[in-house]
Amino acid sequence: MSAVSPNQAQDLAWLLRGLSDEVPVIRGSVLLSSDGLLKAAHGFDRASAEQLSALASGFFSIARSTGMKFDDSNEVRQVVAELKSSQLFISWAGFNSVLAVLARADADPSVVGFEMARLIKAVRPFLHTAARSAATVPGDRNRMP
């Protein structure tokens, strides 16, 4: 379960909209839990935002696994993918949270990365996602008491 109430989710969408206002080359952004659940979005319809959340979670997870294997750390600062007409930036945004930003191909990566980091630093406590408890199935032997 997310630590974000519906009103906070609207506030978070407003923050993402502010990021796009600061950096006009941003096409859209999503804030997601580290396991891929959409928390807030700006610039995408719901289906596209959910799909980008799932994809960003996968990229972020692969980067964490790579770090654990080759860098002795699971800390990921940023993942960047250059696509044909876009750039995708994925950053850790707080406990169990990730920020993904899709920008135009002509975006300056240092500007996008800087503004993402500035937003995250300014509002990090509000971006945290509470850990979910394990779901239980009736009759499941592994069920928590």
UniProtKB/TrEMBL annotation:
<dbReference type="InterPro" id="IPR053141">
    <property type="entry name" value="Mycobact_SerProt_Inhib_Rv3364c"/>
</dbReference>
<protein>
    <submittedName>
        <fullName>Roadblock/LC7 domain-containing protein</fullName>
    </submittedName>
</protein>
<dbReference type="Pfam" id="PF03259">
    <property type="entry name" value="Robl_LC7"/>
</dbReference>
<dbReference type="InterPro" id="IPR004942">
    <property type="entry name" value="Roadblock/LAMTOR2_dom"/>
</dbReference>
<feature type="domain" description="Roadblock/LAMTOR2">
    <location>
        <begin position="13"/>
        <end position="103"/>
    </location>
</feature>
